[in-house]
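Milestone M4 deliverable, item 7.
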Amino acid sequence: MIKKILKNINLLHSFECAARHQSYSRAAAELCISQAAVSQQMRQLEDNLGKQLFLRKGKSMLLTQQGKTLLGASQQAFKIIEKSINEITTEEIAGSLTISSTQAFTALWLMPKLNKFLAQYPDIQIRVMSSPHFEDLKERHIDLAIRFGNNVQKKTDPALSCEYFGEDPVYPVCSAELAKTMSFKTPADLLKTWLVSLDNPGCYDWPSWFEHSNTQCYQNHQQWTEVHSTDMALNAVLNGHGFTLAARYLCIEQLKSGQLVMPVNIPHPKVVKRYFVYDANSAKIARLKIFTHWITAEMNFAH
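Output delivered:
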């Protein structure tokens, strides 16, 4: 009987997922199969064992004592297998990765933290490219593009993986020194100083923010500065030149240190969605996944 079950390790994989979620529907979503398929697999496993593993309670699938025992053993076994696979594929991790993203992300977020990654993974060499455009990954020999916005999935080649990894609000920020010299309590108060905007702001523009905050008099504002990228805008603002709109992840360190502040704590109506874009069949997928997991963990930790 044991050999019969182990011949179909897929049943144990599905069981571990269903037991962890205590839900067939959530397990189906993670496994990319139908809920009916999960249910059928669990019945097959229970028939093979001659033991009941789940008890239905409302929408949840609770584990029996036998189910709990099998879950613990399955998770321990899969950890051992994963560790062994990592050990035998170590040679695939060493090598290069070419990363592409916006100038603001590479300058303000990635480059200050890159040494931390390389200290942990010295066998991975990182080449960084910055571009405001959605570059052709194959043509430019790019292994990973880190892209931001609300239209990334639409603009991405369907042959590539477009993996969502979170989102960030956009706020008006200014230097702490400017906030000390002027009173900024309402959205209209921002019109007392310079407003720094990107020459191509997309949907993260000042008019949308003023409309969202019910401020109408912004149309007559005269003190505008246009720049090419958010890192230029933040550099101007850090030196006391008014306000700019910035995604929180780009200025999180300056906000934590107190160099930048958000005296009017109203976010832009549009959030910035983040995506990893890459070829899922890349020969570099092992080291690519290491890099994307590191970025995700660093961003989650910062928040």
